[in-house]
Amino acid sequence: MQTNMLQLAVFLGLTLLVALATWWRYRREGKSGDSAQDFFLAGKHLSWPFIAGSLLLTNISAEQIVGMNGAQNLLQVWWEFGAAVGLLVLAKVLVPMYYKYNCTTTTELLEKRMPGGAGLRRTVSVLFLLGYMFILLPMVLYTGARFMQSLFQPDLSILTISVMFALAGLAYAALGGLRAIAISDTYMGVVLLVMGGLVTWFALERIGWDFSGIPAERLTLWGGPDSDIPWPTLLTGMVFAHIFYWGTNMLIAQRAMAAKSVREAQKGIYAAAALKFLTPFIVILPGIIAFKLYGDINDDAYGRLVGDVLPPWLSGAFAAAMTGAVLSSYNAGLNSAAALYTVDLHLPLVNPKADGKRIGQTVQVVFMLVSLALVPLYQNAKSIIGTLQQLNGLYSMPVLAAFIVAIFVRGANVRALRIALLFGVALYAVFTFAWTPLHYLHLMFITLVSTIAVAVVLSRMMGGKIGLRTSN
Length: 472
Description:
By secondary structure, the protein is mainly α.
């Protein structure tokens, strides 16, 4: 389907409308006296609807919609249902602690929980920054560009479309900070849910609501040993992948940390958790329908389906919604990277009197340029969602191990934990690039447990009196 003027007009009109609505709401919001806090945490004035909307849209970006539909099987539903576990841990365990210690970054909790933990905090921040720069941001750009190319079929390369996304994302992140991001996320989240629901409805109409002919293994919830998600992994790596992503990842937790109060944050988190039980109708079911219509076409499934089942004006509206989803994850990554570098590294190590907002904006430009340069590396990925989850393990499980030790283990040695962190990264790198004896989710669990064990053993060897904390 070639681009036509109606598609383009609807796409540009809806995108501009959301931008204007965001600007209008942004101007009405109260500001705090601290420009850095306004930039990184929206002045701690976010209400629960904006927290829920921003949490949802930051998660449901192109790499989720394109990648999970590209898997073309029902097993992917566990990534959505399992999110509720991570969100509950965030709401009940971590958010109260982030507020108790007045944290600006999630990593600050590590320093507050462990005496002499400044070095540990910086180490974890660097791991997050590397993950955002080399994995998350280029993947978001690539998947967004790939979807737009499959939908509109413009005479533009994936890299060119990625540049457009990157510049738009930078504009939101650098000019408006987290407040503008959360507002635009919420508005576009509503559009995305409506448009995604329409895609599924039209697709179901196309197949007459008949799923016959689709292999049983694509419709089962219990994965076999050779499936994308073998059922035992639900009890090992998947649980902890969700706890890392929703609970300790600055990209997500930053929204909850920007609320007016713990209670306001929790309301937003609970609303997002409830919505995760609806999202499979958008991020999974269309891919299965695409299998019935086209066969196994992997990550091209969703773009082709949208182009086929939606009338031109609606496909233009959907493209606007997808643009919002891409920008949500991308500018969230830029803002989180800026906060981690500025608050955890630059201010304490380089210049404590520096303008935090200005430093953050500079960091965002650097991360944008690097992520663009890395986009071509992801063009040969067989499965977007599988590649993303697998690579995230390089830092997610070691980082989660550090949080678990800092929160629950009394007497742990900071130096021992930093050594364990590096051990965990090295171990998972071996599993990923040299020796892969099990499914990557099992290997993530093994990495987590091994990292915690190394931290505890080394702490004992260094004279620590190890025990469980009885209170937080």
